[in-house]
């Protein structure tokens, strides 16, 4: 029995705007039911990529299929079968929550109060149904946008920087809803530059300057980068940080209050490297402990080395 085909598959996907190459040779495979994160700094090409996958922008090179339809020749069939939510609140602020929901239901040919009620309950919007959308806070607006994007129960949901400008509590609640959707069978592709959100995805693609740097689970990407990390408390953090940055085995030094977070490459022990640098700076390590290398560590390392 053959494996189920990927819900998104691209090969060498590219997009130019005149002489600017916004997306360069992006090849992705997204499996059904997973949460796939596209991670990159502002201007990396994330939104351009997602707009091509949604059938909004025509690619200038490469090929791909989304929900079984060709990106270049069947964009309308794709649009009918996906949900799409952007970082901007794109709903009608002078309509109520329920009126917005009914408007999008009508666009997708969805009928029946039962479906409206199901979506309102799932997104926690029952008590807000009669409220004007424009009077809601950022977190509640986000819920309305998600409700409208999923009213037609699409098999694939695109989220383009969905939590930009949203408070941490609302962001956590939003991600709980995303995992609930995924658990029910919806595939989710999300673009973000929040590293803690990247850790919540099943798999990731790192994009920088329009190109894919790496693809894999968060654990695979971190492991391939080969970083070792430690947190150090030192007497003169600025002097020790300067000494550390001169060492070839040091990949990153960052200040977190009174703590220095140190990442090393090539298997070098960051605690030993930190102690040596502190002595050279005429200081001493007061305390140190190993730290887990994160997706943020791997991403910053990859982007800096690629830029250099």
Summarize the structure.
By secondary structure, this protein is α/β, with parallel strands linked by helices. The protein has helices at 46-53, 75-80, 97-107, 113-122, 138-149, 168-183, 195-198, 218-225, 237-245, 270-280, 295-307; strands at 8-17, 20-26, 29-30, 35-39, 61-66, 69-70, 82-85, 156-160, 187-192, 203-208, 211-216, 228-234, 250-256, 259-264, 285-291. β5 and β6 form a beta hairpin.
Briefly, what CATH class of the largest domain? Answer: Alpha Beta
- Termini Cα gap: 47 Å
> Stretches where pLDDT falls below 50 for ≥5 residues?
none
Order of helices and strands: EEEEHEEHEHHHEHEHEEHEHEEHEH
| CATH topology assignment of the largest domain | Rossmann fold
**C-alpha Rg, in Å?**
23 Å
What structural category do the secondary elements indicate?
A: alpha/beta
Number of helices: 11
What is the 3D shape?
globular
The percentage helix is 25-40%
| Strand content bin | 25-35%
Strand order of the largest sheet: 7-8-9-4-10-11
Provide the number of structural domains: 2
Mean pLDDT: 92
Largest sheet: 6 strands, mixed
Fourth CATH level, the homologous superfamily of the largest domain: P-loop containing nucleotide triphosphate hydrolases
Number of strands: 15
Second CATH tier, the architecture of the largest domain? 3-Layer(aba) Sandwich
């Amino acid at each position: 029995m053959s494996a189920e085909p990927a819900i998104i598959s691209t090969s060498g996907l590219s997009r130019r705007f005149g002489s600017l190459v916004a997306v360069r040779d992006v090849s992705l495979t997204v499996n059904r039911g997973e949460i796939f994160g596209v991670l990159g700094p502002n201007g990396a090409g994330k939104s351009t990529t997602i707009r091509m996958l949604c059938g909004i922008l025509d690619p200038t090179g490469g090929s791909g299929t989304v929900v079984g339809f060709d990106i270049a020749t069947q964009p309308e069939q794709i649009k009918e079968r996906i949900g799409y939510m952007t970082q901007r609140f794109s709903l009608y602020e002078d309509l109520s929550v329920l009126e917005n929901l009914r408007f999008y239901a009508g666009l997708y040919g969805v009928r029946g109060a039962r479906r409206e009620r199901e979506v309102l309950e799932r997104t926690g919007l029952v008590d807000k149904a009669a409220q004007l959308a424009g009077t809601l806070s950022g977190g509640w607006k986000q819920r309305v946008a998600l409700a409208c994007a999923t009213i037609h129960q699409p098999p694939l949901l695109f989220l383009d920087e969905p939590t930009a400008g949203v408070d941490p509590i609302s962001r956590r609640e939003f991600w709980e809803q995303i995992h609930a959707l995924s658990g029910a069978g919806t595939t989710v592709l999300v673009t973000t530059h929040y590293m803690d959100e990247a850790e919540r995805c099943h798999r990731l693609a790192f994009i920088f300057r329009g190109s894919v740097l790496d693809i894999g689970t968060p654990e695979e990407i971190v492991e391939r980068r080969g970083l070792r990390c430690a947190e150090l408390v030192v007497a003169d953090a600025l002097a020790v940080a300067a000494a550390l940055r001169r060492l070839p085995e040091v990949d990153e030094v960052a200040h977190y209050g009174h703590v220095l977070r140190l990442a090393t490459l090539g298997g070098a022990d960051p605690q030993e490297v930190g102690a040596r640098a502190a002595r050279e700076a005429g200081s001493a390590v007061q305390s140190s402990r190993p730290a887990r290398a994160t997706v943020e560590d791997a991403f910053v390392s990859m982007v800096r080395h690629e830029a250099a």
